[in-house]
Design goal:
This protein is mainly alpha-helical. The chain has two domains: 272 residues, no CATH class; 143 residues, no CATH class. The chain contains 18 helices and three strands. It is rod-shaped, with a radius of gyration of 50 Å.
């Protein structure tokens, strides 16, 4: 059995090779499978280019056969870095012009003989104006510009692939395609066809390439391979005669080629069956992948919902924590206000008990013991006032640390504490004492310049 008729494994292997690799393999070994893969890849391009120029599908089939026959003859002489799609497009142009010159007088008769082929689909108004002059406009382009348009719009390749085929970057390929498209638009304008570049690109993308008739690729491959074998035996004229037979009907062409080449029709049918089976398998796998994608999307949605729920839970916990801190701050603020009120009352009381009044009271009592007791009471009251001031300072420190997220060891200043004190002022001094705030976590203290009860002058007083 030939390479072209081998199983799906060989077909899959051929599909992974580049055009250059397949061309070298055919030129070196005469591999039918390699040549058949080249025909399958580019049959739509060649057929569509021929159809635009010769109008009739049958004529387009003949031109396509002659182009691929020319490729088979010249395979060994073609450069390894050639853009095969561009070469086939140029060859189709030359073959179509030759065919039209030779077959114009028989065009009406052959059109009637080929009614079994499907007529082309409806085209847009823009395409109907472009179609008659498109290939002439393409022929006026330079080789690189033409190759770029063929790859981009006729073969539907992306710009990166176009750049790789032309040996340039993706940006350079985009610029070349844009320039070539503008040249085509200018040529059409000279022919009375006015289109924007966007409309031209849309028309080329949607209508430049039509599907070739079913089994055309297999028929061409069989005909060309048979012709190549005949040419190797010195019968090039027989190949051309064999190709001319196709002008009656597509079915008669296939039968004549298969019989003349000695290749059983069953081989081609088996290959088509293999391809259909692979297509069905690929469709089933595609449906399975679609189902998996939907499942993945649902899982992603559930994961997103779970993450959102967890985030909301953290937000609620944080809200509760902040509410607790606010409640604690309110209680501390109330305690601070109460202490400040008590401090004010004590100060007023001390003012009432001025030193003069105490001396007067001691004199009235007229007893040294009574006078000392009054002095001790005064010192005790002053001591309590200092302690009360220290408690107010400690409350302000705690409140400042809580609201500003400070910890043990952080330094605090009087300026920091003012917003947390009554009237934004530090507690008033009782006997000219000096207050030391200390860091967070360490109690503030005061040094007194006079004796206050058990605390002698220069002694230290802390909040108890």
């Amino acid at each position: 059995m030939s390479d072209f008729a081998s199983g799906g494994c060989l077909i899959s292997e051929m599909q992974t090779k580049t055009d250059a690799q397949l061309l070298r393999e055919y030129a070196g070994t005469g591999s039918e499978a390699a040549f058949g893969e080249l025909v399958s890849r580019h049959a739509d391009l060649v057929y569509s280019a021929a159809l635009r120029q010769v109008i009739e599908p049958d004529f387009a089939r003949d031109v396509a056969q002659s182009v691929f026959a020319d490729l088979a003859r010249k395979a060994k002489s073609l450069s390894g870095d050639i853009v095969l799609a561009g070469w086939l497009y140029r060859s189709t142009r030359f073959a179509a012009l030759t065919f039209l010159r030779n077959e114009r007088r028989r065009q009406n008769r052959e059109r009637q003989a080929m009614q079994l082929l499907d007529p082309p689909g409806e085209s847009s108004p823009d395409w109907e104006r472009i179609r008659p002059v498109l290939d002439e406009a393409m022929a006026n382009l330079g080789g690189a510009d033409r190759d770029a348009l063929v790859l981009r719009f006729f073969k539907n390749e992306d710009l990166r692939t176009v750049g790789t085929a032309l040996g340039t970057s993706e940006d350079a390929a985009q610029k070349r395609v844009t320039r070539a498209l503008e040249k085509i638009r200018a040529f059409l304008l000279r022919r009375g066809v006015t289109l924007s570049s966007a409309a031209l690109a849309t028309a080329l993308t949607g209508s430049a390439v039509q599907a070739a008739p079913v089994a055309l690729a297999g028929t061409i491959s069989a005909a060309v391979i048979a012709g190549a074998a005949t040419a190797a035996a010195g019968s090039t004229v027989n190949l051309l005669n064999l190709m001319s037979i196709t002008k009656l009907k597509a079915g008669l062409l296939g039968a004549a080629v298969v019989i003349g080449a000695g290749t059983p029709l069953v081989v081609q049918q088996q290959s088509l069956s293999h391809l259909r089976a692979e297509n069905r398998d690929l469709r089933e796998r595609s449906q399975q992948l679609d189902s998996l994608r939907e499942g993945n999307q649902q899982l992603a949605g559930l994961r997103a919902d779970s993450d959102e729920l967890e985030r909301l839970r953290r937000d609620v916990a944080e809200l509760h924590r902040l509410r607790g801190e606010v409640a604690q701050l309110r209680r501390e603020k109330e305690d601070q206000a109460r202490l400040q009120t008590e401090n004010t009352l004590l100060k007023e009381h001390l003012k009432a008990l001025s030193a003069r009044e105490l001396q007067t009271q001691a004199a009235l009592i007229n007893s040294p013991v009574k006078a000392s007791e009054v002095a001790q009471v005064a010192q005790y009251n002053q001591y309590n006032s200092v302690v009360n001031n220290l408690r107010i300072i400690e409350g302000a420190k705690d409140q400042w640390a809580l609201e500003n997220k400070k910890g043990v060891g952080d330094t605090v200043t009087e300026t920091d504490l003012l917003p947390y004190l009554k009237d934004n002022t530090m507690p008033g001094k009782v006997v000219g004492e000096t207050y030391v705030l200390e860091v967070i976590g360490k109690a503030a203290y005061a040094t007194t310049p006079v004796t206050l009860g058990a605390i002698g002058a220069g002694g230290t007083i802390t909040a108890q």
